[in-house]
Specification:
Blueprint: H1 7-60, E1 68-72, E2 75-81, E3 91-96, H2 99-103, E4 105-106, E5 111-112, E6 128-130, H3 136-146, E7 159-162, H4 171-174, E8 189-195, E9 198-201, E10 213-216, E11 218-226, E12 232-240, E13 252-268, E14 271-283, E15 286-296
Antiparallel strand pairs: 1-2, 1-3, 3-11, 4-5, 6-9, 7-8, 7-10, 8-9, 11-12, 12-13, 13-14, 14-15
Length: about 300
């Protein structure tokens, strides 16, 4: 009769347990590694899409034809129209509409616009612009709360453009991008509200006036800056006004997304295409890179 295992049986059991433990620990490690990859994939994908969406949202409300590219972050004057962009151009900049003020505010029964974009040409001339159905007091209140600008005061941040393509002019000059170098704009005009339906030009006056106009109170720029990992962090610059002689470095900035490996943009007909790739490190030998693309009309 046997009352215990033999030494050989014990050794055999220990060997089997070691094999099972080895396989089990490898499976656990692989499962944990897969979890980390999946988590970083999801997080990086979300960050990429969120950054593209924020850029697209701003670009959607750009003033037509105002977008440009900048070649060198250290020299903001190395500019070109977006139609001439090449892969060496790292920065995209544009002038935005004050669309929050255009939407206006709810007065209890309807949403009343701050500015509609329609001029009364019969009452307008080269010194003033009469608007149709606007309440520029509402626009001024909203602009003051959103931008560092005051539509009710002269030379205090806002400008007007007419919705017509600037013909036979340099686009960079037309929208004030060359103002920092001393060249006056030809198609964007600093304005302020005289009353609820009248806009006065602050200094430069238009040679022609048109029925449709747009108000802008800030330019924007997407600027990549190299980080310690050798990639880039992408920043949104805002609250600067080229028609007043300001560069993007004069504005405020906020971080959009970190660890960018690629940021490209180009103009395709009347659309702008953005491509963004971001990177996340899982381990010393595993990286997750996610790319996304947006087309803005």
């Amino acid at each position: 009769m046997r009352y215990a295992f033999t030494l050989i049986e014990i050794i055999f059991v220990l060997i089997i347990m070691g094999i099972v433990a080895s396989i089990g620990s490898d499976l656990l490690f692989k499962a944990y590694e897969n979890y980390l990859v999946s988590f970083q994939f999801s997080t990086t994908s979300y960050k990429t899409e969120a950054a593209l969406e924020q850029m697209a949202r701003r670009l959607e409300y750009r003033i037509p034809y105002s977008a440009i590219s900048i070649h060198d972050i250290s020299d903001p004057d190395t500019m070109a129209p977006l139609s001439q962009v090449n892969p060496d151009h790292k920065i995209i900049a544009w002038i935005g509409q004050a669309y929050e003020a255009k939407r206006g505010e709810f007065n209890g029964s309807i949403n009343y616009p701050g500015w509609s974009g329609f001029a009364d040409l019969s009452q307008s001339d080269k010194s003033q612009l009469k608007t149709k159905g606007d309440d520029l007091n509402i626009a001024a209140k909203i602009i003051k709360s959103v931008y560092s600008a005051d539509l009710s005061q002269a030379n205090n941040g806002c400008a007007l453009t007419f919705n017509a393509y600037p013909e036979n002019v340099d686009i960079l000059q037309a929208y004030g991008w060359k103002k920092p170098t001393g060249t006056d704009p030809t198609d964007i005009f600093a304005v302020h509200a005289q009353d609820s339906t009248t806009l006065l030009y602050d200094d430069i006056k238009p040679k022609r006036i048109y029925e449709h106009f747009t108000i802008g109170c800030s330019a924007y720029a997407i600027v990549p800056k190299q980080n310690a990992q050798g990639n880039y962090d992408l920043y949104l610059y805002y609250n600067f006004r080229p028609w007043k002689g300001e560069r993007f470095s004069d504005g405020k900035s906020q971080l959009l997304v970190q660890n960018v490996t690629k940021f490209n943009f180009r103009r395709v007909a009347h659309t702008i295409e953005l491509k963004l790739c971001t990177n996340s490190v899982v381990s010393s030998d595993i990286n997750v890179t996610i790319c996304g693309k947006k087309v803005i009309f």
